[in-house]
Amino acid sequence: MKVKLQSVQESDAEIFYSILKQPEFSKSSFNFNTIQDVVNWMKSINKDQQKVYSIIYNNKTVGMSTIIINQNRKFIGEFGFFIDKNFCNKGIATNTVKNLEEIGFNQLNLIRIEIKMEITNKACERVAVKCGFKKEGIMKKALKIKDKYYDCYLYSKTKQNVAPF
Question: Which of 52, 129, 155, 158 lies most in the core, judged by the most C-beta atoms within 10 Å?
Answer without folding.
Answer: 155
